[in-house]
Design brief:
With 732 residues, the chain is of the alpha+beta class. The protein is built from 19 helices and 35 strands.
């Protein structure tokens, strides 16, 4: 089933996170984040938009960096899988960035610069990738002078057994060391292979220590990690150090330092590691430096407690290269702390928090996550921890409880934010998309505000729209009987079908404000009966066909979409082979689409820093922030709640081509009819999705017995009604 929104929230809203260049937090026995020092940023390269800076190197007071994927300059290769690598330099005092022109055209288009090494007269670039047919690795070392004039180009593929080299470095004696997953290769100054060292397990990091010892990290099949110290001259491992933590490492996470034995970075910050004491020390905390770990492309040490970092936020096209220097004790200005709690934060929200902390001189947002899947916690564990905090009165000032907002609002947990909007000099209710703003309210009160939204609906081919308009269970039954040769939904079992029909509208059957539910209603009986009748053993899915394939073949009539955004319009139009229609879930109102608020943030009624909490909330609703969601090239796939930014998004989707067109790419836009249809569904939707995990578990358990013929429909709904009523009463 395509419930990309609901499944994410059922598991306490586990958003997909792109893990780039990280080693697990507190790896190697690292200290807690609170012990890290404060670092001050000095920007070296600001808002670099020509490409993605990828690798860093420092030599003789000059920074060198490679880039990947030059915008607008892919030329004849624009429709190919093409890697455009460049090399640049910038002096430490911040003079103009200069390109060092190196001819890479002799290599295959899939080649990337994977390592950069510099000594007193030579720049060495290791190129490693697969050729155009992806049948044979490429391992070429290009050596040039500082002006980019080529001295030597050496094909080392045969010497490294055609392994894909993931990192190469140069020792102080001039040897080149290349690391693959299974072996380490040591070359002398003339690039003759000196030694090949087989790796225990697989390699996950490599660096040269301050005492010029070559160190690599490995991980075995049981995720156990070790550090290995290599005697380069002898080409053998002299010492192995078991690591305390079993965390993920990245090939480029370890790096050299003149001050520490080695340094490494995690998704929390930069650590040092002492080989003698076998202890790690947390040095640079990304949170304190307003950075997100997943945005860091590369980091190097350049002096005493100084690090240079490439920062490329995934929600922007700009990159910064900055020097971070340790601050003297007491330099940091004291701020008022505002605690922000959620089951789990996505990386974009973390970026917004860090941006606020950096810009605001009065308040500092700190994050508290209740759900830690990595430590084996369940959704129930997270909710229990939150409830324990509520019982103790230790509640965060800001809370993002998403689909549970109404439940906790009924406990008196949240402020009515309508008052804040009315008093705000720069915000008003009229600035929001009107039906969206009204749907955020619960019984006339605004307990939480969402900065963006999606649509929860059922989608069909447009030719079915008239039959399904104002969908009810009765209409759905008649429609399915008319098309008995097709599947109503992509569902394998009766329970799957029930989940599809309830994921949008289960909130219609309960009200936390009054503490009542209606699972014994005729409407709910009709839903259960439909699932029981429409699904049978002879119409189960073809196990070899995917959901998209069945839709494209016309074998699936309706699709449940739980986080529909305008970018999805063309995707579904192509799947269905024509224009689509938004049907909505069957309900008595006749219009069963809902708003999906992935993030609903409220202010704790007992907070002592309500002004600071609102100051953060209003930044999420500012034009500057909302315009990011209107940018179709940001990749955020979010619909802004401000009306002006919503209108801009729709205009951009139907008229703007921008950089995609400049790059020669075919970026199809929606037509005016599609734009108006989406505006219509937004304007005609009046409710937000509500989903209670515990109630759904009760329904699923009792429905299974009904589907198996062990209970009749009347007894089933009576039990569901009783259990859900008891659950609501006990949860108040």
């Amino acid at each position: 089933m395509n419930n990309k929104y609901i499944k994410r929230l059922i598991a306490i809203f586990m958003l997909q996170v792109m893990v780039i260049n990280i080693m697990g937090c507190d790896s190697l026995g690292g200290d807690k984040a609170a012990n890290a020092d404060n670092y001050e940023e000095q920007i070296i390269v600001n808002d670099w938009v020509r490409a993605w800076p990828n690798l860093l190197c420092y030599y003789d007071e000059t920074f060198y960096f490679t880039t990947f994927g030059e915008y607008g300059e892919v030329g004849a290769s624009q429709n190919e899988h093409y890697c455009d690598n460049r090399l640049f330099s910038v002096e430490q005092n911040g003079n103009e960035v200069k390109e060092i022109s190196i001819d890479l055209s002799k290599e295959e288009p899939l080649t990337m610069i994977t390592s950069i090494m510099i000594d007193e007269d030579t720049i060495s670039l290791w190129l490693s990738a697969y050729d155009a047919d992806e049948s044979k690795p490429i391992n070429v070392l290009i050596q040039t002078d500082y002006a980019g004039k080529e001295k030597k180009r050496t094909d080392l593929n045969a010497l490294v057994n055609e392994e894909n080299i993931v990192k190469a470095l140069q020792t102080t004696q001039g040897q080149i060391v290349a690391m693959a997953e299974d072996n380490i290769y040591i070359f002398d100054e003339t690039l003759n292979l000196m030694k090949q060292i087989e790796i225990e397990g697989r390699a996950i990091g490599m660096a040269v220590s301050k005492d010029n010892q070559l160190i690599y990290a490995s991980e075995d099949s049981n995720d156990k990690q070790k550090l290995h110290i290599i005697n380069v001259e002898k080409g053998k491992i002299e010492k192995t150090i078991p690591l305390k933590r079993n965390e993920a490492m990245d090939y480029n996470s370890m790096f050299a330092s003149e001050q520490y034995d080695i340094c490494y970075r995690t998704n929390k910050g930069i650590y040092s590691y002492d080989l003698e004491t076998k202890k790690a020390t947390f040095l640079l905390n990304y949170d304190k430096s307003y950075l997100v770990g997943e945005d860091i492309r590369d980091a190097i040490s350049v002096g005493m407690d100084e690090f240079v970092i490439i920062n490329h936020p995934s929600d922007k096209i700009e990159s910064n290269i900055s020097l971070y220097s340790k601050q003297d004790t007491g330099v940091e200005k004291e701020k008022v702390t505002v605690t922000f709690g959620a089951f789990q934060f996505d990386e974009n929200m973390k970026r917004e928090v860090l941006a606020f902390n950096k810009a605001n001189s009065q308040y500092e947002i700190t994050l508290k996550e209740y759900f830690d899947e990595d430590n084996g916690e369940s959704a129930a564990d997270a909710i229990q921890e939150l409830n324990e905090d509520i019982a103790k009165g230790s509640i965060p000032d800001l809370l993002d409880l998403s689909l549970l907002t109404n439940q906790y609002a009924a406990k008196g947990l949240f402020e009515d934010l309508s008052v804040y909007v009315e008093k705000d000099s720069e915000l008003s209710e009229e600035q929001f998309v009107e039906p969206v703003f009204q749907a955020m309210k619960n019984n006339g009160k605004l307990y939480a505000i969402a900065p963006y939204f999606g649509i929860v609906t059922l989608i069909s081919k447009k030719e079915y729209a008239e039959q399904l308009n104002g969908l009810t269970v009765e209409k759905l039954i008649a429609f399915c009987k008319e098309h008995e040769d097709k599947l109503p939904f992509y569902a394998e079992t009766k329970a799957d079908l029930l989940s599809i029909l309830l994921e949008g509208c289960i909130g219609d059957y309960y009200d936390w404000e009054s503490g009542t539910c209606q699972f014994d209603s005729q409407k709910f009986k009709d839903v259960l009966t439909f699932c029981n009748q429409i699904m049978s053993d002879d119409n189960l899915l073809d196990g070899n066909a995917t959901r998209n394939e069945l839709i494209e073949q016309g074998k699936v009539l309706l699709v449940n979409e739980s986080d529909f955004v305008p970018h999805d319009i063309l995707t579904y139009a192509k799947m269905f082979g024509g224009e689509i229609s938004y049907i909505g879930y069957p309900n008595k109102q006749g219009h069963g689409s809902y708003f999906a608020f992935n993030s609903q943030i409220g202010i704790y009624a007992g907070s002592g820093v309500k002004e600071g909490a609102w100051e953060f909330l209003r930044t999420l609703l500012s034009s500057e922030q909302q315009e990011k969601y209107a940018d179709i090239y940001s990749g955020l796939d979010r619909i802004p709640v401000r009306k002006d930014c919503f209108d801009q998004l729709m205009t951009n989707l139907s008229t703007s081509r921008g950089e995609f067109e400049e790059a020669g790419e075919d970026y199809e836009m929606i037509n005016q009819e599609q734009e108006q249809a989406f505006r219509d569904i937004v304007n005609n939707t009046n409710k937000a999705i509500s989903y209670d995990i515990e109630m759904m578990n009760i329904i699923d358990e009792e429905a299974q017995a009904y589907f198996a013929g062990k209970k009749d429909i009347d007894k089933t709904v009576r039990i569901i009604q009783k259990r859900c009523t008891t659950y609501m009463s006990e949860s108040k």
